Amino acid sequence: MELIDTHCHLDVAAFDTDREAVRARCRDVGLSALVIPAIAADGWPALLALCASAEGVPKLYPALGLHPVFLEQHQAEDLAALEQAVKRHRPVAIGEIGLDYQVRSLDRARQQQLFEAQLSVAQNHGLPVLLHVRKAHDAVLAALRKIPVSGGIAHAFNGSLQQAFKYLDLGFKLGFGGMLTFQRSSKLRRLAARLPLDALVLETDAPDMTVAAHQGERNSPEYLPDVLAALAEIRESEPELIAARTTENAREVLNLPCIQHP
Length: 262
Prior knowledge:
Layout: E1 3-5, H1 19-28, E2 31-37, H2 44-53, E3 59-64, H3 78-89, E4 93-100, H4 108-125, E5 129-134, H5 137-146, E6 152-154, H6 161-169, E7 172-176, H7 186-194, E8 200-202, H8 224-235, H9 239-254
Parallel strand pairs: 1-2, 2-3, 3-4, 4-5, 5-6, 6-7, 7-8
Helix pairs in contact: 3-4, 8-9
């Protein structure tokens, strides 16, 4: 089976001591690619260098963007820098971008301005986006209708079935990760069972949002098969079928090449 982790922060300090060992274990469990979304502009150079230097499988693909939760780290000039970085490096997506209404201290107007500016960058370059959305799905959907982009992924999707279909109508896939492995995530599991399979992609969001079998530990992209197993169980389907379809979905929405797994 071939798997793609569509959202993994392998570039952050939590992996500094064993990054290559993690990649090796990912290869052993069938991961052919990891998509690495950015958080802030000061992390772009290291993220790009990591993706460029990673040899063999799994391939590492960068996404560049300014994360809404880290609003205070972003400078006015970062948007111009994003435009230039996209021209120079051609990431697979603009991300991680979006709106977060769960953290009440975050300025919503500034988030909106930053989000829409990054949607415009994505639109100008024909790139998909990786969305961070918490308690803000309707506002995000309204922004996407205002500034249409080439699809993307609603990362860690936790909205309603109706909101899910609105994302699908706009060319998006929905990312499901470690929370799916917890029996207590009953609403999320029901949603994953009801959505069309061609709407779904797998992710870990490592080092955050770990799977049930590693609760309390650092999450890792090597645990993506746990998410696959949970989704297969929920949908009463064969893991091989789920793996093949979600991998193809990821390739389709992010324009990723086919990779020969050793």
